[in-house]
Amino acid sequence: MRLRNVFTAFTIAALALSAVTLWTDVTGTGNAATVPGPFARYTRDLGGEEPSPTLGMAGQAAPPLLAPAPVSVSVQGFYAWALLDRKTGTMTGSTNAAAATNTTESMIKVWITADYLRRFTAAGPDQERLDELSRMIRDSDDAAAQDIYEADGDNAVVQRMVSVCGLTETSVVDGWWSRTQISARDAVRLGACLTDGRAAGPKWTSWVLGEMRQVRGEGRFGVVEALPTEVANRIPIKNGWTVVGDEWHVNCMAVVDRYVLAVLTRYPEELGLDYGAGICRSVTSQLRPRS
User: Fold this and answer.
1) Terminus of the chain with fewer CB atoms < 10 Å: N or C?
2) CB within 8 Å of 58: residues ≥ 6 apart
3) Separation of alpha carbons 25 and 44, rounded Å
4) What is the residue range of the signal peptide feature (predicted)?
5) How many CA atoms lie within 13 A of 290 on its CB side?
6) pLDDT for the residue 291
7) What is the reported pLDDT for 63?
8) Which CATH code of 3.30.360.10, 3.40.1160.10, 3.40.710.10, 3.10.28.10 fits the domain covering 57-286?
9) What are the C-alpha distances in Å from 73 to residues 8, 63, 224, 254, 269?
């Protein structure tokens, strides 16, 4: 398994997925602040599969599970978050969502899987390889991730993620898939890339998202814990969690109906994994629409 990081939150909007936007950095002092931001829209629809609305009573569309809102979390360390509306392209998040990065840790395993499947022959991999790919996502199997990473070109795997998904704040760390540096803004772009078919291609996208819905064990935490039980099981997620030096690196990524949410955290080791999971839960809870 691999882990993630912490920061102070504000609400902002990016003008385009590839635009250079001014974001104000806030150091991780543990103090919290909230600044409502303008919610600008991107100039184009993201395309891809139409996000399915949650259905309420009698087939009526239920209120959205998430919506842009101010977020304030007091953290001992660093955190950043971003929320992307896959339908409109509107992005909101912390003021450091583009400027600050964290190691991806296990969150990148969904890309390693999708990239491998997209590039494979039309017949697809055999069952043994599919089982390995499934373990990589469901159980966050590090050995499986390393095997596929090496088989598919090492650094080239991450370089393709940057180019295919249009990432702008992601950087390769030679020979280390888990140490890839990514911003919260790029993390939600990765989530959109997975859902719209660019990552895995038309044949394998549903399979990858299905595996993300079945993440289990130690890796099932964060965003899904802040959602109603009846819908949490259908939410595709991939988290990352590892102790690096004397810090936990904890990341959460989830596709919640039309939205992709990512939270990146980093904080002292003695606070434990649940501290980072709690940051993900808190951000998610604050983005839940109030009735």
Assistant:
1) C
2) none
3) 27
4) 1-32
5) 3
6) 64
7) 79
8) 3.40.710.10
9) 6, 24, 18, 19, 19
Inter-residue contact 212 to 237 (CB < 8 Å): yes
Token digits for 88? Answer: 């409109």
Distance of CA 134 to the CA centre of its chain: 18
Q: What is the pLDDT of residue 16?
A: 32
Structure tokens that stand for 145 in this block: 């991730």
Residue 61 DSSP SS3: strand
Which tokens go with 14?
Answer: 């990016």
Q: Do the Cβ atoms of 95 and 11 come closer than 8 Å?
A: no
Long-range contacts of 83-86 (CB under 8 A, 24+ apart): 83/188, 83/259, 83/260, 83/261, 83/287, 84/188, 84/189, 84/191, 84/192, 84/259, 84/260, 84/261, 85/258, 85/259, 86/46, 86/48, 86/51, 86/192, 86/195, 86/196, 86/258, 86/259, 86/260
